[in-house]
Write a structure and sequence with these properties.
Elements lengths: L4 E6 L6 E8 L2 E6 L4 E5 L4 H9 L1 H5 L13 H15 L6 E5 L5 H8 L4 E6 L2 H9 L3 E4 L11 E7 L8 H9 L2 E12 L4 H6 L13 E2 L2 H10 L2 E14 H11 L1 H13 L6 E15 L5
Parallel strand pairs: 5-6, 5-8, 6-7, 8-9
Antiparallel strand pairs: 1-2, 2-3, 3-4, 4-10, 9-12, 11-12
The structure holds zinc ion (ZN).
Length: 293
């Protein structure tokens, strides 16, 4: 593969040159070989992103946004429970904030698992209305919608960090809202995952313009370190899905074999079977490296 150095686009983590990896319509994916961090170019402005997230279309789902979220299916709840149990094994949580809470399903599960106080923020007013309809305290906006001060034992960001144009000030604002001993749980697509590498430019997580940064185990560790977080654990993220879901995704990637497999699974009545599979993302649990007493 021929790669060309672009002097105008420096890596946000190391300041070094990034290389063009893919052309994605009117955007390019740049990649820092040192940090293993991908970045969209050109970066959207804050105003463009706010307009995108605030639209009803984004929430309703048009192939992007919350499309996969619309089905309020039991597999989502089960996947959320598994992730919550992982978080709770690192210590008790009384106050939990979710950034990008969507319609509030994760927070509902958190409450079911005994977290007494949950709060969500999301830039999409329709999502926030749904979360409130589920009885969850939710606010339109991002971390700035939450009063400053160390108020939370855990802050959760599932599929959020890849949307953040300026991760360091964002993570500083997150850190300022964690109590001493508090933890940050991040799930984000892994550009070094097998799924990403096999899929190439058709990787399901390559989503311009809203996915602006594409992390790897190394670069997520670097960005958290730069924001004064210590990584406690990192693992390949997994989720519960039906066999039909996996094969529909596969069919998009490799249409013929995917189609055949989907037919075979249907004939064998395996389509509704639920499996726990890696989804090409990473789960990262971290905590502020220096706690203010
Ligand atoms: Zn770099």
């Amino acid at each position: 593969m021929t790669q060309k150095v672009l002097s105008s686009d420096a890596c946000v983590l190391c300041g070094g040159p990034q290389r063009a990896r893919y052309h994605l319509g009117s955007h390019r994916l740049l990649y820092c070989p040192r940090c293993k961090l991908g970045q969209l170019s050109p970066l959207p402005t804050d105003a463009e992103l706010q307009a995108l997230y605030a639209s009803e279309e984004y929430f309703a789902g048009d192939g992007a946004g919350y499309a996969d979220y619309a089905a309020d299916d039991p597999q989502h709840a089960r996947s959320f429970r598994a992730r919550l149990e992982w978080l709770l094994r690192s210590g008790p949580v009384d106050d939990l904030l979710e950034i990008g809470c969507g319609p509030g399903l994760f927070l509902v599960e958190a409450r079911r698992l005994g977290v007494p106080h949950v709060v969500g923020v999301d830039p999409n007013p329709w999502a926030v209305a749904q979360a409130r309809a589920r009885g969850v305290e939710a606010h339109v906006g991002s971390i700035d919608a939450i009063d400053a001060g160390p108020r939370f034992d855990a802050i959760v960001m599932l599929d959020v960090l890849e949307h953040v144009v300026a991760p360091l000030p964002f993570l500083a604002a997150v850190r300022a809202r964690l109590r001493p001993g508090g933890r940050l749980l991040v799930m984000t697509p892994n550009i070094r995952s097998l799924l990403a590498r096999v899929s190439g430019r058709r990787w399901v997580s390559l989503k311009p313009p809203e996915h602006v940064r594409y992390y790897s185990p190394r670069s997520v560790r670097r960005v958290l370190r730069a924001a004064d977080f210590d990584v406690l654990t990192m693992r390949a993220a997994r989720q519960y899905v039906t066999v039909a879901f996996v094969l529909t995704r596969l069919e998009r990637l490799v249409p013929r074999p995917g189609h055949v497999l989907r037919r075979v699974a249907a004939a064998l009545r395996l389509s509704d079977r639920v499996v726990f599979v890696t989804n090409g993302s990473i789960d990262v649990l971290s905590r502020p490296s220096t706690s203010i007493p």
